[in-house]
Structures are given as C-alpha cells and as structure tokens.
Design a protein that fits this description.
The complex is a heterodimer of chains A (295) and B (138). Chain A is an alpha/beta fold. The two termini of chain A are 34 Å apart. The longest helix of chain B has 19 residues. Chain B starts with a strand and ends with a helix. Classes of the chains: A alpha/beta (295), B alpha+beta (138).
Chain lengths: 295, 138
C-alpha cells in the first residue's frame, strides 16, 4: 500500500486537475452560447437564400449551368470541417473516422479522393496521410467568418470547374443537441436540382406563386447566386461545427470533472483506511509495550 | 398600415433592419430602383452601393455590398453580404480600405501583375459606398 504522504500528494494533484477541467467546462459553456447564437443568427439568411434559389431553379433551366453538371465521378473530394482545438472528447476523432470510411469506400470503387480541410485538427491528421489535401483553412473556428467560407467555396468551385474534381461532399459535426453531435455528409458540388427544389418547399409561403420581375434574367441571377449558395452552405456547416465543438467540450470536461471527484473519493477512502491502520498499529505497539513492562 | 412595406435587411451575421417603411431604394445591378407598398414581385441582384429607406418622413441611409433583393406581398427582403446603417459605419476603416485599394490600383497600373484588379476595384467601390453613406466623402 502506498504511504500516507503519497496518497495525500495524489489527492492534491487530482484536485488541481479537477479545478482546471471545471474551469474549461465553464469556458466552453460560455463559448457554446455564443456559437449557438451565431448559428441561429445565420439561419434566416440561409433559409431565405435557399428559398430564393429554389424559386429561381423552378423558373430557369438549371441544366445550363456548369456548376450543376453531373459528371462521371473519377475523383471526389470531401471537405472536412473539424475544430481547431482538441480536448473535446471524441468529437474530431468521430469526424475523421467518418472521413476515413468515406475515403475507403470511394477507393474500393476505384475512385480517387482528395480531402479539403477546414479546422486545424483535420489538417493535422490528413497532412500526415497520403491523400491529397488541396484546401487547408485553419484557425478559423474560434470565430467563424464568411471570408473563410468564401475562400473554401471558391476553391471548391475552381477545382470542380477545372475538371480536377467531379464532386464535393461536405462533412461536418451536425449539432443534434448538447450531448449528441453527429458527423454528417452533404453533397454541395455539383448543386443538384433536387436540393434547390427542397429549399423552395421549405418556405412558409403558399398559394399561387406570383410571377416575378427578374433583373437581370433568371439565368443570370442564378449564375451569380450559385457560387454564393455553396459558400452559404459551407458557412452554415462551419457555424454548426463550431457549436458542436463547444458542446462536445462541455460534455468531455464535465465527464473529466466527474471522474476527478470519483478518484478523489476513492483516494480519500484509501487515505483514511491507511491512517486508521497506522493508528491501530501504533496503538498495538503501545499496548504491547505496556504489557511487556507489566510482565 | 396597409400602405407600408415590410422591409428586412439580412446579412450572414445579423438581421440589420426589420421595419415598416414607406419607400426603399436599392442599388440593383441594372440600376437603382425604389420600392413602395404594393410593388409587383421582383427579384434583383444588388451591386455595391447606397440604399436608403424612408419611414414617416425620416430617411435612413445604408451601405450595402453584394447580394440580392426580393419583393413579394409587400415584403421586401434584402440579402446582402454586408449592410451597415450610416451611423454604424467605421469611417476610419473605410478610409484605410480606400487608401489601400488606391495604392493597389496604382501599382497594378504601373505594371505589377500579381494584383487582382477586380478585387481591388471591388474593395474600392465598397469603401467609397461606405464613405458616401457616412457623409465623409470629399
């Protein structure tokens, strides 16, 4: 059995760790609220955007757009959105595992795969593997900005239009609730007509559709808005991942804090037992000595 | 209330304006146009520039860049990448952006090829629009 002093030292050490994890939990909780707010603020914009896109797609002939062209898939890209920082449980590991599975599936079908990384954790992982990483955007998750989403979106579109890549899937940590975050795929390039139509039906307005005046022509507007639509989707994914990340960190740190207090309880029990044992031993000594003197 | 237009200006970061207005003028790609209540449905892309709206005789000026506007059923939605009300404009920042853009354009004119002229011009237009709206353009 460890000595009394050893146990005592261990308890103090764990108490300190507990304090840190507790503080990190609270920081994550505060950041989570901010991230959630930003996610919700973005929603009306994204919702309206896809609504208008849907409406336009039903008017214009979508097949005329290079961004909607469905080609035979020779090389696909997965745009992995992870967090910049660790210590958030299995959050990033789950996303990366999902990406790996995606890559394996495509490879077994004889297709090539590239990986685009948003967020440092994904980049750290994939830069060490042998897959091609044409996009890397790091240090962007603490405060998600449209600029970063646009950068990623433009790059995706360029790679697609150059014929370098035939499809782009977005992989992000979907925020289900505070305890559940789910790695989720979403195909963003080429833009599919079905996706656009879905955006339309999601709108609240019903009844007969008014005929719009379009300035410029619907095709032209759609041509301008399509790249923006890709950016908007990436932005939404980034915001959601940022929110999930903080939620995951909250849970992870909460678990860590609880594990710490469990350990402290156990160690305190061991400490008290050891103390008791030493007192009993001392007592025995004294009693034994007294008996010997008497004899 | 029937003769008011329900205006919403939305950017990726926030809902900038949500109000009942009498008139709203926006910089469309094919030219600026004004919208009043009962306007026919219209969908137009926006360019960088100045928009303003009037409510009970008061005029509010805003700088917008990029995006589009949709009008239907007396509801007008402006989806812009950035939109700022005149009082909220950071004049110093706009001035700096203008100087930077001017410098870049000059350098490009004197033969440097690594400069994205389109981007510099867009930055210039954004800065000018902000300054104009803020009333700081000399």
């Amino acid at each position: 059995m460890a000595s009394l002093k050893d146990i005592k030292l261990k308890i103090t050490g764990i108490k300190k760790t507990e304090q840190i994890t507790k503080a990190m939990n609270m920081v994550a909780a505060a950041k989570f609220r901010g991230a959630q707010e930003r996610m919700e603020e973005f929603r009306p914009y994204a919702g309206k955007f896809s609504g208008v896109m849907g409406q336009l797609a039903s008017t214009a002939n979508p097949n005329a757009f290079p961004l909607m062209e469905e080609r035979e898939i020779k090389k696909s890209m997965v745009l992995v959105v992870t967090s910049d920082r660790g210590l958030c449980g299995a959050f990033n590991a789950n996303i990366i595992a999902a990406a790996e599975q995606f890559i394996d599936e495509r490879k077994s079908e004889g297709k090539e795969v590239a990986v685009g990384c948003i967020g440092r954790k994904g980049h750290q992982y994939f830069s060490k593997t042998d897959v091609e990483v044409p996009i890397e955007i790091t240090d962007c998750m603490a405060r998600v900005e449209m600029v970063d989403a646009r950068k990623a979106g433009q790059e995706c579109i360029r790679l697609f239009l150059d014929g370098h890549i035939d499809e782009v899937h977005l992989l992000y940590g979907r925020f289900v609730n505070v305890v559940t975050q789910k790695p989720t795929f979403k195909k963003i390039v080429p833009i599919s007509a079905i996706d656009l139509a879905e955006g339309d039906s999601g709108e609240e307005e019903s009844g007969p559709k008014a005929t719009y005046i379009y300035e410029p022509a619907p095709e032209e507007i759609l041509g301008i808005l399509m790249p923006m639509f890709v950016n908007v989707q990436i932005m939404a994914a980034m915001l959601e991942t940022a929110c999930s990340e903080q939620a995951a960190r909250m849970t992870a740190m909460d678990n860590a804090t609880r594990a710490c207090s469990d350990m402290i309880n156990e160690l305190t029990l061991a400490y008290n037992k050891a103390r008791q044992a030493s007192i009993t031993a001392e007592l025995m000594d004294i009693v034994g000595g007294a008996e010997a003197l008497k004899g | 209330m029937a003769n008011k237009l329900n205006l919403e200006v939305v950017t990726p970061t926030k809902l900038v304006v949500s109000d009942q207005v009498d008139l709203c003028t926006v910089p469309g790609t094919e030219g600026a146009f004004g919208v009043m209540a009962n306007h026919a449905p219209i969908l137009s892309t926006l360019t960088i520039g100045e928009m303003h709206y009037e409510k009970d005789g008061n005029q509010v000026r805003m700088a917008v860049s990029g995006g589009f506007v949709e009008v239907s059923d007396n509801r007008m939605t402006v989806l812009a990448e950035a939109a700022e009300i005149a009082d909220d404009i950071d004049v110093d920042r706009a001035l700096r952006a203008k100087e930077r853009a001017e410098k870049r354009l000059q350098e490009a004119a004197s033969g440097r090829e690594d400069i994205d002229i389109a981007r510099a011009k867009a930055a210039m237009a954004r800065a000018l629009a902000r300054l104009k709206v803020a009333g700081k353009l000399t």
